[in-house]
């Protein structure tokens, strides 16, 4: 084989190798979390629905509010913003240490349409203002054990948030003294709390689903 043929063969080999290398190094997109089947918990259009579970003095506009002695909070059905329909849940909380807005009674017959043995995600929409405020969403399961997940108001407008149950962590800062602690989310869920992870948060929440 002469030098010219050898050089041509070498070029072809290098070219083919570069094509294979490029194809094997294509960036892969991060898989998106999706919900295969959704069961509406509430779209906040039924403004007579009471989520406060007889919270007494902690009740405000049919939602539970609670916090430390510095708490300033407003919670209720609001027509200021809505992802769908006319109303959403407005959560406006300020406290030195902690404050929360709670939705309870999710284990009661009003929510029997949710197949708790199948669902493994929660989906909801949040209206962000890009304040940088942090929020903790807390589940209290059927045996009163609490699990948490943190998210940040780092966006503007409505954003869909889907959280697999497996992404929740056992809450370490506090647990109800009567909770049965097994580290597993036992359904049906009894409570959902939107809890301060910083000094304040102010968000609107709409269209909450549990999903398969």
Provide an overview of this structure.
The protein is mostly beta strands and 212 residues long. The protein has one helix at 3-24; strands at residues 38-42, 59-60, 63-67, 72-78, 88-94, 99-104, 121-129, 134-140, 146-152, 156-164, 169-170, 191-196, 200-211. The protein has a single domain, classed as Galactose-binding lectin (Jelly Rolls, Sandwich), CATH 2.60.120.430. It has 1 helix and 13 strands. It has a 7-stranded antiparallel β-sheet with strand order 2-3-6-12-8-9-11, with no helix packed on it. Strands 1, 4, 5, 7, 10 and 13 form a 6-stranded antiparallel β-sheet that branches. The longest helix is centred in the first third of the chain and has 22 residues, at 3-24. Residues 3-31 have low confidence and may be disordered.
């Amino acid at each position: 084989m002469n030098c010219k043929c050898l050089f041509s063969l070498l070029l072809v080999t290098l070219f083919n190798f570069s094509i294979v290398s490029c194809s094997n190094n294509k960036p892969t997109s991060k898989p998106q979390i999706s919900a295969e089947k959704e069961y509406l918990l509430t779209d906040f259009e039924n403004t007579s629905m009471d989520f406060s579970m007889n919270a007494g003095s902690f009740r405000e506009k049919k939602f539970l509010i609670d916090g430390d002695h510095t708490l300033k909070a407003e919670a209720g059905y609001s027509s200021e913003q809505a992802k769908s329909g006319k109303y959403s849940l407005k959560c406006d909380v300020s406290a030195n240490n902690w404050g929360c807005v709670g939705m309870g009674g999710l284990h009661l017959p009003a929510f029997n349409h949710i197949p708790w043995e199948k669902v493994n995600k929660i989906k909801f929409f949040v209206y962000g203002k890009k304040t940088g405020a942090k929020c903790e969403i807390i589940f209290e399961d059927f045996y009163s054990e609490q699990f948490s997940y943190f998210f940040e108001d780092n966006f503007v407008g409505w954003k869909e948030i889907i959280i697999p149950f497996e992404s929740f962590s056992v809450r370490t800062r506090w647990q109800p003294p009567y909770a049965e602690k097994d580290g597993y989310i036992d359904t049906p869920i009894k409570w959902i709390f939107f809890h301060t992870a910083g000094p304040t948060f102010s968000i609107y929440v709409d269209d909450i689903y549990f999903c398969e």
